[in-house]
Amino acid sequence: MTTLTATFKDRSAVAAWTREHGVYIALALLIVYNAIATPNFLKLDTVQLLFSQVPPVIIVALGMALVIGTGGVDLSVGSIMAIASAVLAKFVVGGTPIGLAMLYAVIAGLLVGVFNGLVVAFARVQPIVATLGVLVAGRGIALVITGGALVELFVPIFKDIRLGKFLGVPYVMIVAALLAAGVAFLVRRTAFGYRLLAIGGNRRASVLAGLPVRRTLIFVYAISGTLAAVAGVIATARLRASDPSYIGLLMELSAITAVVVGGTPLNGGRVRILGTVTGAILLQLLESTLVSHNAPDSVARMVEALIIIAAVYVQRPSRSSR
Amino acid sequence: MTAPTTKPQKTVAVAADHGGREAARARARSLTSLISRNGAVAVLILVVVLGALIVPSFGKPDNLRNVALAASFIGIIAAGMTFVIICGGIDLSVGSTYALATIISAMYAPRGSFIAVLYALLAAGLVGLIQGLIIARWRLPAFIVTLAGLTGVRGLVYFITNEGNDHPKIDGRLAFEALGTGSLATIGTPVWIMLVVFGIGWWALNRTPFGQSVQAVGGNQGAAELMGLPVKRTQTIVYVVSGLCAGLSGVLTTALSGGGQEARIGDAYELSAIAAVVIGGTLLSGGVGSMVGTLAGVLLLFVIQNLIVQGANLNSYVQQVVSGGFLLVVVILQAVLSRRAGTSET
């Protein structure tokens, strides 16, 4: 009897550990697989390439993780990237210094985020529909700003954003890491972070407990919008152009996938920042692995679908904790 | 059971009410509730009448026929989506499933109409079944499972079309083409098929035990389980229904166009379908919703789009801004109205 309960405990402990660390295990496995099966994988170039590709997803996913932590979802992030890119192009073409233009682009994202937050907090529209409206309208706004055309941008600093490295680490990855640290601090060490998780856990109880629910929600969507705009600026620098019909397309799906694969539950009340970053890296590495093995795009998509299902299956709540 | 989120009506208070003030308030509440429930129908009538008065070209029978035809494809998808959302779920995979059925029905057209339609619907139903089983049995979040479905099924579509390079066409005339190109009383067959789908959907939702289960599961899954309702079976079936609707819509598209579709067809259709359902007054939280509302929601989306094209000479980007803005206005009004009516919690 005692041995039976002991093994039972062991097994549930293993299950719990896998649940908590699934995304890290998956990333480790994928790295080991690549080290063995992919030629030239363990070279600095490969890692640098990965680290220069993944930051936009990480940055958007950080904001998305906060929104999902409140029990919401932000579908507008891809369109916000496009708006930021269009605003950047508009000001650069108009002769504004690049630093100021970037600032305006980020402010544009902040404003869209605040709008999302107002609609969710005051009108109490369900986040998925509110941000769906902004997804549709936002890309239209971006296209209106640039007149629908691709705007090529020749700005010296874009080369630094694209290729610059500090001690071998691309600048953009350093920015992503700093933002991740900032968001982690926000969630774990500030009253704002606790409020955010409380709202995700139970919005009604948070209202009754006298928490500033509306203000917190507006802040959360504003952060998500701001981060999406930063990602939009980086994407523009990498493309060397502003293409509002392309930049940030389907980014909302990549970001949500990274967050969920990283172990943040969709119904809110819990946020995992390191998991989110790992999830984003995992998905990017998966994609480049499939590319380096000459898997066609179609197969890559199907494999991605299976990975998503596997990730949420491993992390599904156990029966007792439900 | 039909509206578990509704707060208990204060019948006792009304009975003890002397000045009739409570009764008046209850009447006002039921009126706002009526408007918010059937808001889409009212707005649709208003917009169509005003549109016809202001924009002469909008009211012409030919134009209205075209609007209805264009709306029928998203309409059929939205009918299935209504079941999923009332059941408390969501189906993001319908755009990809629609594409799969479009391609398969064109691919198998050489083997006859029956096989082409059958295979397309089987594939679409199977997609729904697999997702439904995963969601119901493993209790994984519908949003993520169908998000994987969106990605995976689109991958499958690219796989069977040789990475999007094949555009299977129908050679010669086939019986099932009449499904798309035919017309009855001058109105295109797809429109009639959409109306039949909505009719069956209304009946199934409001007049059958299955419909009752769908509403109960969406309202409160735990309570539905305790009542002994077949929760898992209901959850599985709604995704099959949604898959089949997306498949039927895909088949009709091939029938109308004769095939030759791009592999990316149906991209973002899930968003239009969800928008139509929500505009129609179905709550995303599940438990409450109406087929009539969804039909009005779909028509409203397409009427507005058509009015923008016909009335104002706007380019496609501004059109996008207007349709997004319109969606926002509708959902904000709805949220405010339904709170006034006391049908939504904090």
Secondary structure elements and their pairing?
The complex is a heterodimer of chains A (322) and B (346).
Chain A: H1 2-37, H2 44-53, H3 55-69, H4 77-93, H5 98-121, H6 127-146, E1 151-152, H7 156-163, E2 165-166, E3 169-170, H8 171-189, H9 191-201, H10 203-208, H11 213-239, E4 241-242, H12 251-261, H13 273-292, H14 297-314
Chain B: H1 11-15, H2 21-37, H3 39-54, H4 61-86, H5 94-107, H6 113-137, H7 142-160, H8 177-181, E1 183-184, E2 187-188, H9 189-207, H10 209-219, H11 221-226, H12 231-257, H13 269-279, H14 291-310, H15 316-340
Antiparallel strand pairs in B: 1-2
Please tell me the CATH architecture of chain B by its name: Orthogonal Bundle
Note the gap between the termini of chain B: 20 Å
Gross morphology of chain B:
globular
What is the number of helices of chain B? 15
Strand order of the largest sheet of chain B: 1-2
Classification by helices and strands of chain B? mainly alpha
This entry's quaternary arrangement is: heterodimer
Distance between the ends of chain A: 26 Å
| Low-pLDDT residue intervals, each spanning 5 or more residues of chain B | 1-15
Which of globular, elongated, flat, extended, rod-shaped describes the shape of chain A? globular
> What kind of sheet is the major sheet of chain B?
2 strands, antiparallel
Describe the structure.
Chain A contains 14 helices and four strands. Chain A has 322 residues and is mainly alpha-helical. Chain A has one domain. In chain A, the strands form two sheets. Chain A has a two-stranded antiparallel sheet with strand order 1-4. In chain A, a hairpin with a 2-residue loop joins β2 and β3 (169-170). Chain A is globular. Chain B has 346 residues and is mainly α. Chain B has a single domain, classed as ABC transporter involved in vitamin B12 uptake, BtuC (Orthogonal Bundle), CATH 1.10.3470. Chain B has 15 helices and two strands. In chain B, strands 1-2 form a two-stranded antiparallel ribbon. In chain B, α3 runs parallel beside α14, α4 (61-86) crosses α13 (269-279) and α13 (269-279) packs across α14. The longest helix of chain B has 27 residues, at 231-257. Residues 1-15 of chain B have low confidence and may be disordered.
